[in-house]
Specification:
9 helices, five-stranded mixed sheet, Rossmann fold, globular
């Protein structure tokens, strides 16, 4: 079967959509299907204003039609509601081709939190976008129930599995903190509502694992709860680096603090997730973990 997957999110981004799409493509090809992934790297793009690491396709309609015509898929699945998603939707609607969509991100709440637009307005737009398809893929029962209550139709459960080659019960002594340990893994961003997790009245410790725009540069593990030091032994201060004499780019580059897995344990610094109003503490995992 020839399957076209259309997504505005793709490498080098690291997020749930990209991870899911990568695994889906791998497994479909392993099953003998011919898969084309239509992503922004095939188009002219511009940086997203509030997420410059995300690139959005510009003028995608004509090229989208050409790419789909050349591939001639048996099925088309639209993963995101961005410029490529709208271009693929337009292509299918004009030719009377059935397609499916996926609901991956709570954009209405995200837009409301960032810009103050009422979530109801964005849900109306999403109902129109997804309503033209023959099915809306959702990952969890709670999202399915929420969308159904908001008037979405043709909802289909598309749950996620666990890669047991990477995730399996193992020794856990590297978390030296009061138990039980509650852990969340994902982007450290406003739309993930991590404040609700940190506000939970739970015994033991909480851990936030991830990278994103809501903390300083560099991924790591942030812990809050009993047993975590209130301050680290050292702080890499970029202001000190900026005060170095201007001896040329090579000398300044050599003096610049190094951010790597090996020296991150020496950078155990207190972090404040500004909009989340909670102090969390950086404890990067060692190389062995």
């Amino acid at each position: 079967m020839r399957i076209a997957l259309v997504s505005d999110a793709w490498r080098p981004q690291v997020n749930g959509v990209v991870r899911t799409l990568t695994a889906l493509t791998r497994e479909l090809r392993r099953g003998g299907h011919d898969v084309a992934v239509i992503t922004p790297d095939l188009f002219r793009t511009v940086p997203c204003p509030f997420y410059p690491e995300i690139h959005l396709a510009v003028g995608a309609h004509r090229r989208m039609a050409k790419l789909v015509d050349v591939f001639a898929p048996d099925a088309i699945h639209i993963v995101t509601e961005g410029p490529l998603g709208f271009a693929a939707r337009r292509y299918c609607r004009r030719r009377g081709i059935p397609f499916t969509t996926a609901y991956c991100t709570r954009f209405p709440e995200y837009i409301a939190a960032r810009f103050g637009f009422p979530a109801a307005w964005n849900y109306a737009l999403l109902r129109r976008f997804h309503g033209a398809g023959s099915g809306i893929m959702v990952a969890t029962e709670s999202i399915r129930n929420d969308l159904a209550a908001r008037g979405f139709k043709n909802l289909r459960s598309w749950t996620r599995g666990v890669d047991t080659k990477h995730f399996q019960p193992a020794e856990k002594s590297y978390f030296q903190m009061p138990r039980p340990v509650f852990l969340t893994v994902g982007r450290v961003a406003l739309e993930k509502n991590l404040l609700a997790f940190l506000d939970l009245d739970l015994p033991g410790s909480k851990i936030v694992v991830g990278d994103g725009p809501r903390h300083a540069r560099g991924a790591g593990v942030w812990c809050s709860g009993g047993g975590v030091p209130r301050a680290g032994p050292a702080r890499c201060d970029r202001r000190q680096w900026r005060r170095l004499p201007r001896r040329g780019p090579q000398a300044r580059r050599a003096a610049r603090p190094r951010y790597s897995r090996r020296n991150m344990p020496q950078l155990c610094t207190q972090l404040h997730l500004d909009a989340m109003r909670r102090a969390v503490y950086r404890e990067p995992l060692s190389d062995q973990q």
